[in-house]
TrEMBL record:
Domain of life of the organism encoding this protein: Bacteria
The protein, known as: 2-aminoethylphosphonate--pyruvate transaminase
Species, as recorded: Aeromonas encheleia
One GO term of the biological process aspect: organic phosphonate catabolic process
InterPro entries: Aminotrans_V_dom, NH2EtPonate_pyrv_transaminase, PyrdxlP-dep_Trfase, PyrdxlP-dep_Trfase_major, PyrdxlP-dep_Trfase_small, SP_NH2Trfase/AEP_transaminase
Gene Ontology MF annotations: 2-aminoethylphosphonate-pyruvate transaminase activity
Subunit details: Homodimer.
UniProt cross-references to Pfam families, sorted A to Z: Aminotran_5 (PF00266)
Gene: phnW
Aminotransferase class V domain mapped to chain residues: 79-315
EC primary class: transferase
Reaction equation(s) it catalyzes: (2-aminoethyl)phosphonate + pyruvate = phosphonoacetaldehyde + L-alanine
EC numbers, comma separated: 2.6.1.37
């Protein structure tokens, strides 16, 4: 007997969640190996190729040399906080575009870090308007940086990255993108868009397991972070310099097993055909889901043109007998795990399309969904 109960029996649930998500058995198996964080097999053999591959995925061959990747321990938010806390000098000003929980989290970070910042609060179900951003920039010449979420996972909305990036290029504003839930699942070219810092994490569209996040940034922008950090552990420049100068060594203990899984996940991304192919799979998952849900009477929260292929929010049924917890348990009993809503002013639930999820599995979900709608006439 031990004080900690035995782990629950392993069940292969399909996680229809925005991360951690369903990974392949081969990604999980890659973790069955201990590594020494001082060892060249690990640092030069695993970490360095990962850093190079991340840059390759985010840039064109002509521009790759101008970019670098930094891996950092913690969940995705730690990396966002590291960038915000390291990128801005004392005289810089930050505009945060907020249309959901992750935009709001950046505002909270800026406040806590004592950054000079301004928030454009768009509301959770509105798409940020470029004209509103432009007019704010015109009135606030102290703004030097702009931070925006790419896919706002709160609602599944895809924010207008192209247009905002063009505006930032025009006005010389440094752009920071939280592409946590989109990078690896939607093509993004940092050089063409002029993004200075792009942030994502191991357990989203690259389809690894949780434990670290990463930044892909212009090398000049990383160099400019020297001496600016407002935290020791989250000092982006120090982490970058250690990895650069010591051949992929992490400053503090590295999440070794997670990193091995991530290397395998990157191999599998390439085998799938790269980001463009993964993007098509996610899009097909999403279209299959929305079409099937419509026949069951579920309506998406967002208008279709704003919807990302990453995750979809659906309005909750208005039937008095409906309870999310009961609905959730019925689907879980059939092997499918969905996600609660996060929008403050609308009652929703969410279903993710990312991870080791195929259109065939989405159709299986739809087949059990009808029986899980216990409040509807004819359901079991
Ligand atoms: C997942 C996610 C994050 C990070 O969340 P963590 O729980 O810290 O990993 C940040 N931004 C967006 C848009 C996300 O989807």
């Amino acid at each position: 007997m031990t004080h900690i109960p035995a782990a629950p029996a392993a069940v292969d649930y399909l996680l229809l969640t925005p991360g951690p998500l369903s990974t392949t058995a081969t990604v999980r198996a890659a973790m069955l190996q201990d590594s020494c964080t001082w060892d060249a097999d690990y640092n030069l053999g695993v970490v360095e190729p990962i850093r190079r591959e991340l840059v390759r995925l985010a840039t064109t061959p002509e521009q790759a040399a101008d970019y670098g990747a930094v891996l950092l321990q913690g969940s995705g938010s730690y990396v966002v906080e590291s960038v915000l806390g390291s990128a801005l000098g004392a005289d810089d000003g930050l505009l945060i575009v907020n249309n959901g929980a992750y935009g709001a989290r950046m505002v909270e970070m800026a406040r806590c870090l004592g950054l000079r910042h301004l928030e454009l609060d768009c509301g959770e179900t509105a798409r940020p308007e470029v004209a509103a951003i432009e007019s704010l920039l015109g009135r606030h010449p102290e703004i030097t940086h702009l931070a925006m979420v790419h896919c706002e996972t709160t609602t599944g909305m895809l924010n207008p990255l192209e247009e905002v990036a063009a505006l930032c290029r025009r006005r010389g504003i440094r752009l920071i993108v939280d592409a946590m839930s989109s990078f690896g699942g939607i093509p993004i070219d940092l050089g063409r868009l002029g993004i200075e810092f792009l942030i994502s994490s191991a357990n989203k569209c690259i389809q690894g397991v949780p434990g670290f996040g990463f930044v892909i940034a212009r090398r000049a922008a990383l160099a400019a972070c020297a001496g600016r950090a407002r935290s020791v552990s989250l000092d982006l420049h120090a982490q970058w310099q250690t990895m650069e100068q010591q051949g992929g060594k992490w400053r503090f203990t590295s999440p070794t097993h997670t990193v091995l899984a991530f290397a395998q996940a990157l191999r599998e991304l390439e085998q799938e055909g790269g980001i463009a192919a993964r993007h098509r799979r996610y899009q097909e998952n999403q279209r299959t889901l929305v079409a099937g849900m419509a026949t069951l009477g579920f309506e998406p929260l967002l208008p279709a043109p704003w919807q990302s292929p990453i995750i979809t929010a659906f309005h909750s049924p208005t039937h008095p007998d409906y309870r999310f917890a009961d609905f959730y348990q019925r689907l879980k009993g059939q092997g499918f795990v969905i996600y609660p809503g996060k929008v403050s002013q609308a009652d929703c639930f969410r279903i993710g399309n990312i991870g080791d999820v195929s259109p065939a599995r989405v159709r299986e979900l739809l087949a059990v969904m009808a029986a899980a709608c216990y409040w509807q006439e004819g359901a079991l």
